[in-house]
Known about the structure:
By secondary structure, the chain is an all-alpha fold. The chain has helices spanning about 1-80, 120-135, 145-155, 160-180.
Amino acid sequence: xxxxxxxxxxxxGSNVLNxxxxxxxALGSKAALSTLSIxxxxxxxxxxxxxxxxxxxxGQISKLTKTSQTxxxxxxxxxxxxxxxxxxxMKMAMVNTPLAMRVLPLAPSAGSMDTAPASNxxxxxxxxxxxxxxxxxxxxxxxxxLMDNLKTLKTTMTDVDWKSFESWMHKxxxxxxxxxxxxxxxxxxxxEKVE
Length: 195
């Protein structure tokens, strides 16, 4: 009987221990579940904060992109030669315009740009092509001799444009000289004695 009592006591003790273990495991799983819930909530909150900051920075990135593009465009404009840059201001007052510099009328409207030039002359053909490219181009009427017309152009053009024009004239003259070069017989010119 003593053995039976011991078995009973040990069974009761083990039952008590089992109840305690069950309570501990239930509390442990609740703690693990609440810890996991907190971690998931922190993860979601972190994602929300990240999305908020990215969205907020998107406006600043757009502004920086626009500023960068503007700066690149300005740098490209600075690299262009002075004659290729668009002229925003008139260099010469209209009051001081000589009568020889009367301006041709502006090019016709865009609908009539497909019409042919007034004549088959090279001058009219070139004017037509230039006006198609930029209808605001103006051409002075030059009716004097070559030297007077060049003097008039020099006084009405900007320094940069005049230098560019002079450079073109030089190249054109070389072209004309090369085109019209005639092989002449080299005549021996006797040297004169200088006493």
